[in-house]
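Ticket #4471: complex job returned nothing on first submit. Input attached below:
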Amino acid sequence: MKRCRMLTGVNTTAPTRLPVLLPSAAATIGAARRERHEGTFRLNLKLWHGGALLLLLLIFLGVAEAANGTREGPWAILWRWKWFVLQGFGLNLLISFLAMALGTVAGAVLGLMQVSLLAPVRTSSWVVTQFFRNSPWLVLLFTVMLLLPFEIEIGDTVFPIPDWTKAVIGFSLPIMANLSEVVRGAVISIPSGQWESSESLAFSRRQTIWMIILPQCFKRMIPPWMNWYCILAMATPLCSIMGVEESVTHVSQAMAAEDNRPDLLTPFYSFLLLIHFVYTYPIARWTISLERKFAVKL
Amino acid sequence: MEAFFEWFRALYEQSGWNFVFIYEQYERERFITAMWTTIKLSIYCLLFSLVVGVVGAWAQGAKSAIVRNVMAGYIQVFRNTPPLVQILFFYFVLGTGLDRAGLMPTYDAGGYLEPMLGAFGWAVISLSFFAGAFNVEIFRSGIEAVPESTVEAAEALGYSRLMAYIYVVLPLAFRVSLPALNNNLVNLIKTTTLAYVIAVPEMMYTANQIWSDNVNVPEMMIVLFIFYVGLVAILVYFMHKWEHAMRIPGYGT
Amino acid sequence: MAWDESQPMVSINDVHKSFGELKVLNGVSFDVMKREVICIIGPSGSGKSTLIRCVNALNTIDKGSITVQGQEVHDPKLDKLELRKKVGMVFQQYNLFPHKTALENVMMAPTHVLKQDKAEVEERAYKLIKKVRLDGKERSYPGELSGGQQQRVAIARSLAMNPDVMLFDEVTAALDPETVKEVLVTIQELAEDGMTCMLVTHEMGFARELADHIYFTDRGIIVEHGPPVTFFTDAKDPRTKEFLSQIL
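Support reply: We reran it on our side without changes. The output follows.
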């Protein structure tokens, strides 16, 4: 698509045909369309968000410390439990890695099925995609957690299936469906001329998809893929509802062990948010910078 | 109707598929209440989040820098933290805080005092603020898309400033905002399941109770899926129609 | 059935084609002999592009027949690979593969589709790029080339398959006026080498100079045809006259 320069430093993809609206109207509508196709909003974390969290943590620690009589100070308590909370966060990371890997592989297959020439394959994969895309994550999580057995028997040995592996599967389902849609969207965004010229050069359909279309889609798919990873990493604490021993569960266990002192509530949870932020922030920024870079080149 | 109920009882006796919430009156009432609760929750959150959005978009253009900064801070906090944390925070921190401080108004619920805001109320507040944070930005970008010259053109035709806003700016801004608003609404419906964590008796929570009492997890799961996917599908269908009817020719499809 | 050079290279017989309600081709017939260069001209929407795309089986036809070297193109049992080795096509929008360099664009189809030896293909690709006067641009990506340069890479890419017929679908229509000429020169050289060419074009001067035969289409039929000398000076049909008066 031809880019046209409207104002210095402002590039839009479409010339303004209606003087009634500013170019930002097209941008707003375009962003909504992108969000619909990618299935989520774009995370836009800023460094000062982390600063604000840190400030919150420090203020509440300070207030609690000042109001503290003879009891042990909240800072000492938080410090004592730090490894326990971080260990829980480690499980969040593990779940997010595995769910992303599983969801990516399954989503790629499902997405390619959505552009198949065979109508039954196309339709069934579309149904699966829409189904998992439109179900609430919590419902999917519950389903997998409750319907999978807690152990399986192969031959004589019994393999236990720990809760967190079920959570991995539960999280991978919505990731799969949304990435499937990302793949389909990227494939159909390639201009039809690419298909035609490949066809006239006698490429088979499989060759066209693997050698011509997908390599061009790749760059378009990276930013939404990374954004989905951030969303997933932020969503993993959901499985604490089913008792998976991750960070939120560990925080509440730690607080319970300290008699649920109300002055610990804010320090502990803002500490947890801060950990999540420190992890997600660089990825979210990188996503945005990659997208800008690709937008210039494509 | 009775025959329909009895058919499911027979289905259970013959095949073991236990759709208990259809043929047993107690479970049926609980189930219908839950459906109604989810729908009510969605509608309240939708309306309040729109109000938050409009007020917020107006506040973002306020003259006072304090108001603008508070608004910006609110948007950033609610956009970038998990809604789960938000719900827990509202209910446990604000809710218990107000209760302890004795600031929560109560009413007489037949002999004992109930706080005015229960779990349902807090869920509405927290989810409205969550969705509202997105709406503020959506409305603002919609209004900003209408150039000053359009307002001037309306004024030249004899419209007052206010009339120009009501008849020209807002309808245009709304059309620009509609697709993003619809996305947000679908997202909101899915997020209402989180009210589960503060024991609001909505679909997710009630389904959990029913399968705990009757040990019919697969059946309830099927019903949950049909309910939510159906709800979202119906919404999406009507929104597409609406968006199509409201589209601005020349601006996207 | 054996084919020899005395028979038409491309033979089009009573071709009909419609898109839904819209009839685009309404009984078109003509032959193209080996080494012949023909131009199809006509107002937009007259079906010229559709016709040329049918020769390559990019579009299907509803009725009639198209043969290339005696082989029916719209035979469901046709080996499309065989057809596309014979028939090269260049598009209005170039349609280069943007993620590959000019050289790779030229090399891709012979290495992957024809499974030819890579070193050999590379050598040939360098020659072809030189032939279209782009030596030195082998490592450039399509995005770094001008429209005219991209279009010449597209021509080289088609030639790499060693086609017997080349189809050009309004190849200069999307170009800046100053780069049109370099592409036309390339096509001219190709024609002088004896390549059978079918062109859909709006470049009347070029058609007059280069074509052996000109076909004028309107509303899905051939209204008038003839060699350039008689066609441009002695048009008989009023529609042709009107078109020529507008364009010349």
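Strands of chain C lie at 10-19, 22-32, 37-41, 63-68, 71-72, 87-90, 165-169, 196-200, 213-218, 221-226. Closing as resolved unless it happens again.
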